[in-house]
Write a structure and sequence with these properties.
CATH architecture: Orthogonal Bundle
Structural class: mainly alpha
Helix content: over 70%
Number of strands: 2
Number of domains: 1
CATH topology: ABC transporter involved in vitamin B12 uptake, BtuC
Number of helices: 11
Order of helices and strands: HHHHEEHHHHHHH
Strand content: under 5%
Strand order of the largest sheet: 1-2
CATH class: Mainly Alpha
């Protein structure tokens, strides 16, 4: 039982890391640019499709992941210049409507290029074995790689935001964009870089999740919903809040789906627990979001007020 619980905790941590990479891009874009991007999940989907394509072309997993991330970064930057830049002075409803349209276009484009049949890329041969961990756990090496790679990238993101000149400009733009513009900073270039960085994070998450999921049109929508839950729980615009909320959501969702039926079995009959367990487990993260919104409407780690 201990091994099973520990394994589910690792699975929850892996899901939390992927959610953080997507939610970090979402909250970064919102915090700096005050822009709601519903099409962020499409960048996750593109990262998965491009990584599968590049692996087939070059037969090199690491190089393919890097190339997919750079490609999604360029796509995100072009998207910001061609479309998003025209929407900054519009209200949030316009942001939602336009980016929802982009979702439909992206899904149709993916279907035209790669087809509508799901693609199963499979695990790299070098990462298809099990790793022995304490408590008698045999855990897939690729899932461990996802956890460690996500942690490293998250650490790099925190260093970029808190220890570099670009990060200083990002934080300044999030708190007082008018003053940043007055000081002579090229705000348009800053916005393009921030949007591209958010796209890169989503693309990396998609590229790493590709071997674990079926790569198919629309795969970004489900994880986008969870990512928005993370953003709301953590606090709009807060990177620290996104990390905390992502880990919480990943653990609660995974452990709930694994053990909710057994937990209910202590109180209700087996038939009731069997029926109610899956339904309740799928609601847990939304219940958590409702509780956070009730007690802390600004989120767990709110961002500094914008001036």
């Amino acid at each position: 039982m201990t091994a099973l619980i520990a394994e589910q905790i690792l699975n929850g941590l892996q899901l939390g890391i992927l959610l953080f990479l997507i939610a970090a891009g979402l909250t970064l874009i919102f915090g700096v640019m005050d822009f709601i991007n519903l099409s962020h999940g499409s960048l996750f989907m593109l990262g998965a499709y491009l990584s599968v394509t590049f692996i087939g072309m070059f037969d090199n997993f690491a190089f393919s992941i890097l190339l997919a991330c750079l490609s999604v970064f360029m796509i995100g930057a072009i998207f910001e210049v061609m479309l998003v830049r025209r929407l900054y002075n519009r209200n949030h409803l316009d942001h939602v409507l336009v980016t929802f349209g982009v979702i439909l276009v992206a899904n149709e484009a993916v279907s035209m290029i790669w087809g509508s049949v799901p693609i199963f890329s499979g695990l790299p041969d070098a990462l298809s074995h099990q790793v022995s961990l304490p408590f008698g756990i045999e855990y897939p090496s690729y899932r461990l790689l996802v956890i460690f790679a996500g942690i490293i990238l998250a650490g790099g993101l925190f260093y970029l935001i808190n220890r570099t000149r670009l990060g200083m400009l990002v934080r300044a733009g999030a708190s007082n964009r008018t003053m940043v513009s007055v000081l002579g900073v090229n705000i348009k270039l800053l916005y393009t870089l921030v949007f591209g960085l958010g796209a890169l994070l989503a693309g990396f998450a998609g590229a790493m999740a590709g071997p674990l999921l079926s790569v198919q049109p629309g795969m970004g929508e489900a994880i986008l919903i969870q990512s928005f839950v993370v953003v709301v729980i953590g606090g709009l615009g807060s990177i620290n809040g996104a990390l905390l909320a992502a880990i919480l959501v990943g653990l609660i969702d995974t452990i709930g789906r694994a053990f909710m039926r057994d937990i209910l079995g202590f109180v209700f009959s087996p038939s009731v627990a069997s029926d109610a367990g899956p339904a309740l487990s799928s609601m847990l993260i939304y219940i958590l979001m409702a509780l956070v919104l009730f007690f802390r409407p600004e989120g767990l780690v709110p961002m500094q007020k914008r001036n």
